[in-house]
Amino acid sequence: MAGDKAYSVPRIRTWLAERRIEDVIPSRADQIRSPDFDKDKYRCRNIVERCIAWLKEARRIGTRYEKLAVNFLAMIKLAMLHRCLRLF
Fold this sequence. Notes:
The chain has 88 residues and is mainly alpha-helical. The chain has one domain. Helices cover 58% and strands 0% of the residues. It contains 4 helices and no strands. The radius of gyration is 17 Å and the shape is elongated. It starts with 9 loop residues before the first helix and ends with a helix. The model has no long low-confidence stretch (mean pLDDT 83).
């Protein structure tokens, strides 16, 4: 799981470790720096954040007009298709 410095608390790190989930969370300034922190994996979370930001440009998705999951998923697919077509 990748998260920003706000998620760098022992309770979250313990919860992830109990479930054998690798955490990619940078340490805060008031904490000891973790030697196994992977910067390359952390940089990849930017891709997911940009994708979510693109989806929220579609107002219908950002405000969750669609209440049924199947309709919401259809709107996400339409928004992604619209985004892909804008790139070409």
